[in-house]
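Hi, here's the filled form for the chain we discussed.

Project: internal
Contact: R.S.
Residues: 384
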Amino acid sequence: MSSDLLEALTALEQQKGISREVLVDAIEAALVTAYKRNFNQAQNVRVDLNLDKGTMKVYSRKDVVEEVEDERLQISLEDAQVINPVYELADIVEEEVTPRDFGRIAAQTAKQVVTQRVREAERGLIYEEYIDREEDIVNGIVERMDAKNLFVGLGKVEAVLPSSEQIQTETYAPHDRIKVYITKVERTARGPQVFVSRTHPGLLRRLFELEVPEIYDGTVEIKSIAREAGDRSKISVHTTNEEVDPVGSCVGSRGARVQSISNELNGEKVDIVEWSEDPVVFVANALSPSKVIDVQVDEEERSTTVVVPDYQLSLAIGKRGQNARLAAKLTGWKIDIKSETDARELGIYPRAEEDYLEAYEYEEEAPVEQVEDIDLYADLDEEY
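And the returned structure, exactly as it came back:
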């Protein structure tokens, strides 16, 4: 048994990265349990497995005491000194008790232990591989689905795509190839469990990193993302390189780059705006594609009042308030949108001349047309 086992352990050490010493220790511990179970022995025992010499021995271990209470676990000092005069109280006396047919049991036990350790090692390697890939994007193949979850094959492991992380406008079929974002990796009794998402903002960030070289190499930075998966998203980008257009880099020639990302997300529209540390500029940019003629900032409340031309009001707000909602989430500022007519009636636009000394003017960005007054407040929404 020892030569075959030695070869097997050496191969495992090379292929699976499991040290032979670890496996030998595990086999010895399992053999102790096997000895007690198969030979109805309750005493303390130690198994010495020497693969190089081809020997395997079982030793009983007894404590040296003055008065013996359990002969299976203890030996008197007098009896111990008969075996060897050097023994003293509290020493441990070992005596070989290897059964004749223990080799068969040992071989079976060793096989079970090696199989189990190999399985554990493979699970450990898979866990280490994917724990390092949390918050990363991977390619997967749809394998199966149940009432709530979709199961995506990632090669060595099957990932779970919960219904809450699926794009509601998408349909999935077995063998479909999709890109997913790894949100969490957990250890379980059955091995590593990987959870993935199609709705996480991180997926959009990683897609831009893959598609836009300027983002991948750090020339252009994504500052913030606001996403309503499957429908519409906004991202803000910034660069310190004056020769690079951050928005144009992300859009690509004739919109090729952003269109590729939109196609991957089942037609999700993506607005790309330039980030600015000035909330006046940033909020105005975030409300794109609508035009803005004034932005008034309340630093204490972290809120803004935005004035837009009357004919741009519905565009600024967006369908079901989506444009304003995404802009608020993108910038981190509350946004109260007013039409120019309404702002004039409230006396907040145009502002006094001294107020404009510290503000940016946007009057030349769009012509003004008078239509009905509409007052709508778009705020940060916890749901998103």
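Let me know if anything looks off before we file it.
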